[in-house]
User: Which sequence fits this backbone?
């Protein structure tokens, strides 16, 4: 089993790869960011902050100390070569899944999720996607580029197809994207109030979860590359993650789009860090 470089450990994730049920790894890539770069620094900041976080979640009544989680560090990716970077992310994700484990990938910009979703789909052909985000991410291309953080869900649809993608919190995108979604995805605008209902529909099928942290209102979470006013509160996100506990087949997940340089207060990193803890514990059976 190959191991990513730049190794450091998120609190409570000190198990070995062989004994782990869940693998945590970072993807420091923001090569297609269209507004404010900086998400490549997310996982380093999250690991550093994690030592100010308790391993126990009172929301889920679970503790990282009781779980079998391996922090594999960050992938070392080539600069300036998006396709090669995506291939390397896919290869590592595939290795983890083929070893019978789940993963939580932390980006990085949202395009990196394309590789992890694809790897999960190849292992679980009936895969369904829960997408929590401010943005539709349904452009067919951005400035002529098919591979973009603005098109990651559209590229995922290329292999998932209709009826498999469920989007929540969406409040930004081109009119054409919203129109396209009416025919091809489930999309809740502005809120995540229907997540509970959709979780019950998806309870017994394989589900991958991708959370773009810019779903949070920038008034509380300014540390992101494409802030979009009108977002949800952190309490709403925590409640959504609690609802995800009802899913019986969460196969893997990712959390993306923290950009620490844009919030020197550290509040955004603290929220991202806590979200990583909650999602790790959500992935534990």
Assistant:
């Amino acid at each position: 089993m190959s191991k990513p470089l730049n190794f450091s450990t998120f609190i409570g994730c000190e198990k070995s790869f062989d004994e782990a049920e869940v693998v945590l790894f970072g993807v420091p890539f923001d090569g297609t960011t269209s507004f404010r770069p900086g998400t490549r620094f997310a996982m380093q900041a999250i690991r550093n902050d994690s030592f100010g976080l308790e391993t126990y979640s009172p929301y889920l009544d679970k503790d990282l100390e009781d779980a079998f989680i391996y922090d594999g560090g960050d992938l070392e990716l080539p600069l300036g070569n998006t396709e090669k970077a995506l291939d390397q992310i896919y290869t590592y994700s595939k290795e983890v899944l083929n070893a019978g484990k789940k993963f939580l990938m932390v980006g990085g910009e949202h395009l990196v999720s394309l590789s992890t979703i694809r790897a999960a789909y190849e292992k679980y052909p009936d895969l369904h996607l829960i997408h929590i985000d401010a943005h539709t991410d349904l452009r067919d291309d951005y400035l002529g580029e098919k591979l973009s953080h603005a098109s990651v869900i559209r590229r995922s649809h290329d292999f998932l197809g209709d009826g498999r993608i469920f989007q929540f919190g969406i409040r930004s995108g081109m009119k054409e994207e919203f129109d396209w979604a009416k025919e091809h995805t489930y999309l809740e605008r502005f809120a995540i109030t229907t997540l509970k209902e959709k979780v019950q529909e998806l309870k017994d099928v394989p589900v991958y979860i991708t959370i773009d942290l810019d779903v949070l209102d920038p008034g509380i979470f300014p540390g992101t590359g494409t802030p979009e006013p009108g977002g949800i509160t952190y309490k709403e996100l925590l409640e959504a993650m609690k609802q995800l506990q009802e899913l019986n087949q969460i196969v893997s997940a990712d959390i993306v789009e923290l950009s620490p340089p844009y919030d020197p207060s550290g509040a955004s990193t603290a929220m991202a860090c806590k979200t990583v803890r909650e999602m790790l514990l959500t992935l534990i059976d």
In short: The mean pLDDT is 93. The helical segments are 42-50, 82-98, 113-123, 152-160, 175-184, 195-201, 234-243, 267-283. The chain has one domain: 22-283. Residues 22-283 form a domain with the Arginase; Chain A fold (CATH 3.40.800.10).
